[in-house]
Amino acid sequence: MYTYKSSENRLTELHYLLDKKRPNELSQLLRRTNPVDIVEFIEELSAEEALVVFRLLKKDDAVEVFAELEPEEKEKLQAGLQEREFKELLEDLNFDDMIDTLEEMPAAMVQRILKSSDKETRALVNEYLNFPEDSAGRLMTTEFVELKPYMTVKDALAHIKKVGHDMVTLYTCYVTSPTKEILGYVSLRSIVTNKPDTLIDDLMFQDVIYVHTIDDQEDVARTFQKYGFTALPVVDKTDRLVGLITVDDIMWIIEQEATEDFQRIAATTPDEEDYSKRTPLSLAKNRIPWLMFLMISATFTSTILKNYQHVVQAVIALNMFVPMLTDSGGNAGSQASTLVIRAMATHDVEPRDWVKVVIKEITVGFICGLALGLVAFLKCYFFDKVAMNVALIVGLTIVFIVVLAKAVGSLLPMAAQKLGFDPAIMASPLISTIVDSLSLIVYFTIAQIIIPGI
Amino acid sequence: MYTYKSSENRLTELHYLLDKKRPNELSQLLRRTNPVDIVEFIEELSAEEALVVFRLLKKDDAVEVFAELEPEEKEKLQAGLQEREFKELLEDLNFDDMIDTLEEMPAAMVQRILKSSDKETRALVNEYLNFPEDSAGRLMTTEFVELKPYMTVKDALAHIKKVGHDMVTLYTCYVTSPTKEILGYVSLRSIVTNKPDTLIDDLMFQDVIYVHTIDDQEDVARTFQKYGFTALPVVDKTDRLVGLITVDDIMWIIEQEATEDFQRIAATTPDEEDYSKRTPLSLAKNRIPWLMFLMISATFTSTILKNYQHVVQAVIALNMFVPMLTDSGGNAGSQASTLVIRAMATHDVEPRDWVKVVIKEITVGFICGLALGLVAFLKCYFFDKVAMNVALIVGLTIVFIVVLAKAVGSLLPMAAQKLGFDPAIMASPLISTIVDSLSLIVYFTIAQIIIPGI
């Protein structure tokens, strides 16, 4: 695994120096430690210790560490800091991190802090907080390098050297018009590998790929993946450049969106909080509505069974295979639905492809169904030693159920998407419940055809 | 959505110019189009058209476009290119892209191409192909900037200007000893913002986080996410720097790993190929083994039902609720298993936390079970109008089943992980099958207690 002489050892060393009260050596070691690991260290400490360590950090590291801390850890630190100290820290944060921190704080304190900020910052903060949650506007930062087309490589390098320190990235610089429209972009790579007197105008790539402030973060992540960029510019409604999103903020989104889909597929209400941090009550709250809904829906199977009670009583052997049949239908259905849901999430399949997908799934269902039906027939007849006609009913039912389950399992997620719902709600549990009822009807209908008069 | 005056329009424009046979304008427009979109364009063309367009590209774009093409498109192009042309193209590819291309080609052709390559390249290719699939060694590229500690900022910039063109990234440069050990890394950011006579030795960060050639790509992705890097160095067994992995290759892995888990959760064998590109036969092949295994396992329920046949025949009303009960158990179990599987995949939960997780899930199960049991009792008694004792049996059974399902659903994925299997195989379908059998036993046992003598 990754190491720098092992991340774990580093933490042990830091704890040791803190316990032994050796601030100079601790400060030295902190300087050589990645801020991500410092965050891990601080989160293991008491409020007092955390404050001691935090004050030993050099300014840049302190800012980066603070930005990465969990909300409750931020609060812990903030309680110990002077208000002036805290305000300075806030001002040094990147704009997006400052907003995150403000959002987590009590409203009264935010008001107090903003009151003493300059007018420009206040306006910007308010604008920011107006962007929809999970939008590009909320993700972006406002610290980026702006160049002008008439600059030379030498001018650009001098400008970057001057303003570079406060910028989130220097590696993609945007070239703007006097009215802030994007004219193009130029990479630091092409700046440093070209002659000093080359014009930025000649180096810049004009066809900029950008996102809008109101675009959903999932679409933003997709644009990053498609083009492999490390940064994307964000424009407002009037197409003026207002911010920048960097790839490190995006990697979490790809993972978070997948986690949300996993939660929906498991028939629970999605929740951004980590599983390990949630209480049983909060977990139960997200699960009960779905379990209840599915249980009530499943009682439909009771009605069907009641209607066919005379069939079960006539041939009691048929009853034995009910759970196996409904399970197989459910499994075949969830294979189809989960794969289609994932294919839509990664934009491999779109709802307009529905005819193609359903035909494909029915074909798959037919192949799977034949294989399963044959084995089920042989197993029932030779192993369970039921009558030939019962074995035949079970085998035939499997074929029909699997085909039906694949069709339903692929169709419903696409229908949900088309109707503007999240397709992931059409996952295994709901598909199983629907397929169960269909399976029972198919089973008893086939039984009545093969054994007439029951 | 993202645009550069809309990606779709650009494609339409390119098609138009190609159809109207206006190579000069086409070539102009291609120069202003992102290679990712050129790939999309070429993949819509016939072999002859693709070759025409490909030859219109400027060299850098041609190399980038070729690297991004699907294997079958590469083959199409390659068939039209002269062998000399193709060899030149191969040599211009980044090393990791060259390897990808060679891997997709028939062995005989690879041999022929390698025969005419220099000895060094041949050795490198063979070494590369020896790394395990999905390892850091396979992902890395060998084109990175190496600096020496005694260089000044001015020297470094001159060196970067000289070699920069062939490098995958210039933004992280590695400082190495004469024996190729990593001494530290320095960002281009810190090079361009510091004075010309500063020593690289004073700028470099010494505690380098790196991965080994044999590390799994999933671990590599996790390191990228944890530290937010855009590049990570790769070292060999003797800790010498041998390559570099960039973040754009990693974003796909995060997504691909999630997709594999979705496939396992759906009880199908994982497959890297996109759903839309797979044939029904290939899909069926990955699904049948699991469906068959689950169907055979589910026949265990038949045995249980057979054993309790006398109970069913004594109180036929009990039979009606079997599918509803097994479904509810399955759903409760898959909620637990899917959430635990995901939490382990994102390293939020580790197998060593199993006691904590199981206790949490049992508590959740108890809360959910009570809510569901109460509703089930009321529904059976007032709505289905069954006898009070039958309603009581159903309600009580639900409570027990949900608790049991949560325990099994959380425990089994962690046990699988502990035993070295992928926890995702312990997903909904398998959990449902196990919980089904347990549910039936619980149901009929409670029935025998509440209605003695059946």
From TrEMBL, chains A, B:
Source organism, top-level taxon: Bacteria
InterPro entries assigned: CBS_dom, CBS_dom_sf, Mg_transptr_MgtE_intracell_dom, MgtE_N_sf, MgtE_transporter, SLC41_membr_dom, SLC41_membr_dom_sf
Keyword Cell membrane annotated: yes
Transmembrane regions listed in the UniProt entry: 288-305, 362-383, 390-412, 424-451
Bilayer disposition of the protein: Multi-pass membrane protein
Segments forming domain CBS: 204-260
Keyword check for Phosphoprotein: no
A matching Pfam family: CBS
Family assignment from sequence similarity: Belongs to the SLC41A transporter family.
Protein's job: Acts as a magnesium transporter.
Quaternary state and interactors: Homodimer.
Name of the protein in question: Magnesium transporter MgtE
Designated gene of the protein: mgtE
